[in-house]
Amino acid sequence: MRLVYSIFTGKNGEARNQLEKVTKRRLDSQLDADGLQPLEYERTRPWHYCSENLIWFAQMGVIGERVGVNLWEYVTPKGASIRKAIEWFFPYLDGVKTFEKSDVTGVVETKNLAKVLLLCNRMNTLRYKDELGKLMAYGNEKFDLQTSVWQLTFPIIYGPVLSDGDLFDELNLDFPGMEEVKKAVAEKDYDRARKALAAYLRTRSNHEWFFDWNDFNKPETRKADYDRSELEPVMRHYFGACSIPMQFGDTIDWSVNASEIKYQEWTWQLSRHPYWGQMGEAYWATGDEQYAQEWVKQFRSWQEQCPTPDHEGSPLYSRWRTLERGIRTSGVWFNAFYRFLPSPAFDDESMVWFMKSCYEHAVHLRKHHKKGNWLTHEMNGLFNIGQVFPEFKQSAAWSQYAADKLYREQTEQFYPDGSQKELAPGYHGVCLVYINGLYNSANLFGYKLPDNYLTDIEPFYEYYQKILMPDGCTPAMNDAGWNESRESLAKGFKLFPQRTDFQYLATEGKEGVKPAYTSVWMPWAGWYMMRSGWGPEDLYAHFEVGPFSPAHSHEDKLSFMIHAFGKRLLTEGGTYDYDTSQWRKYVLSARAHNLSRVDGKDQSRRSIRGNDLILHSHEPMPNRWI
Questions:
Q1: Which of 49, 154, 186, 374 is 20 to 30 A off residue 592, Cα-Cα?
Q2: Closest to 384 (Cα-Cα) out of 444, 340, 339, 430
């Protein structure tokens, strides 16, 4: 009751505190490592009390999902967990074991356990779908699954959420080529309408992608020497995220976290689906239907388990974080869609599901989006949905909103000296990739952007020239590593061929013209780059005096790095996974950087980051060269 009241009154912090400090301790005292609840099992009605107790734990699991405490994956110090407590019952449902301690009433109730399984499935794990059916036949109680269980407060929700009727309401049925769809919808024959819509998507000629899906059957598409080895583990369901693989079973559970430390990014990033694009390329190179069949299977399992949330979607273990939504729809999903479009495995229903999910992504992205580098992903995805599926009534509005937003971001997210405001070179590059991505999509689809959309990003490429180290890398500032800089300059030269200084550095002096300057001061970022020349043996120093930045910030004020005679002589601590470990705390601290500490104390700009002057530069710094 206290948890529910905290949520009702908006005190999510209190609810989190209760779950972390009280509920987790109670799980440890009430559950054994094998799943037995010893205190409840010794009571006069063991099945009833064990299953009823689990209802409360499962409901706390639901509340925890809302406030960022994942009780479903939590394991107590002695190895107990809610999942083990639930699964303790399963041998009894199968008849493998019989309950040794009888109920004094002589009745074995199955409703409580059914409620627990429904609450777990509500979290989209789908682990206990089969066990629900078994409850109908267990014990001597006549159990009406349809009327007694499925009308609970927390019903199971499978995706996609959008109904057929709602989908067709959102489509412009007067769009050229949609005549058969319109007829079927007018007659409320949604089966025929789905078939007609899928047939239209397979044959529409007024559309294109970055490759022509009609080329699938051309002989030159096949590659006799295509190497399948990289995808073999994926086809066996051995893959993961954050460089930590996992062996899944027949059905992939998209809600799990396979990292030993329960690294929160693992579950989020699993739903970026990078392998789907590779599967599509393998399908085209080989013509082997197993790749199409596996993709459809994975796509449908993700859809079923991951329905669109009715909230912003970024709590722990969510599959609908706004960043992943943007990444999925910026490229990988559509690459897969068009690669598998010729396959018979990509059936009518799955194709309609794909379109429904894209609509749900668009509505969610339009309503819920972030700032900073995340926004560039999100708006790129929203723009693409509007262009790939112009048949939606809102498509034009989605694309215009996204294009306008990214155009404005060129001044709102970047300083006049060319630096992205997070002041981390890696994330600078991410933003540039997605700003360019929208430009490329607009060119593909014939969408008119402002004339200066491209020309205004030239300083964002000169940024790489200004910060370039003698070894060709960017300095590892804030949450960024030693990333290759010459590749970015090569892209800049391709976009701006008049910038032969970009060409000079991209080719290591083999072509182009040497930049007119050596040392340079970036007054908005607050970075000094001092160099004796542009060669690999030249002297280089980077000195940081700028703002803390709104994201990915380190306590590195007045820090410096030195590269000379072909080596990094003074480096810095780098970055670390985005967790709460001591190593993450170290790389964020002043101790991990080359600077002076006063009386052994760390810098602590993070503690006053609510002050906007700490996060941003509002005018160029008046510093001078010394």
A1: 374
A2: 444
pLDDT at 92 over 90: no
Q: Which is it for the CA torsion 224, 229, 231, 237, positive or negative?
A: positive
DSSP per-residue codes, 536-558: TTS-EEEEE-S---SSS--S-TT
Averaged pLDDT, 582-604: 90
Q: Among residues 554, 626, 567, 623, which one has the least CA distance to residue 594?
A: 554
pLDDT value at 133 more than 70: no
Indicate the DSSP class of residue 479: S
Give 238-243's long-range contacts (Cβ < 8 A, gap of 24+).
239/275, 240/266, 240/270, 241/265, 241/266, 241/267, 241/268, 241/269, 241/270, 241/272, 242/266, 242/269, 242/577
Helical ranges in 156-273 per DSSP H: 164-170, 179-186, 190-203, 232-235, 264-270
Contact predicate 545/538, CB 8 Å: no
CA distance 374 to 326: 8
Structure tokens at 252: 């992939």
Structure tokens at 101: 């301690």
Contacts with 362 (C-beta within 8 Å, 6 or more apart), sequence order: 329, 382, 385, 386, 392, 394, 398
The DSSP output letter for 445 is H
Could you report the per-residue pLDDT of 221-255, keeping only the tens digit for each?
A: 999 999 999 999 999 999 999 999 999 988 898 88
Give the separation between CA 235 and CA 286, rounded to whole angstroms.
15
Residue in 325, 455, 337, 445 with CA at minimum distance from that of residue 396: 445
User: Where are the alpha helices (H) located in 393-524, listed in sequence order?
Assistant: 395-412, 425-445, 458-467, 486-495, 500-506
Which residue type sits at 37? Q
Residue from 476, 477, 478, 506 nearest 490 by CA: 506
Distance from C-alpha of 118 to C-alpha of 113, rounded to nearest angstrom:
9
Largest CA distance in the chain: 91
- Amino acid, single-letter form, for residue 575: T
Structure token digits, residue 400:
């215009």
What is the full DSSP assignment across 334-391? HHHHHHHTT-TTS-HHHHHHHHHHHHHHHHHHHHS--SHHHHHHHHHHHHHHHHH-TT
pLDDT for 57 equals 83
CA distance 357 to 351: 10
At 176, list the tokens.
């050229």
Q: How many contiguous H segments (helices) and E segments (strands) does the chain have?
A: 28, 7
Amino acid identity at 451: D
Q: List the beta bridge partners of residue 414.
A: 420
The pair phi, psi for residue 125, each rounded to 5°, is: -80, -30
| CA triple 248-251-252, angle to 5 deg | 55
CB neighbour list of residue 147: distance below 8 Å, 6 or more residues apart: none
What tokens appear for 584 in the block?
């993450």
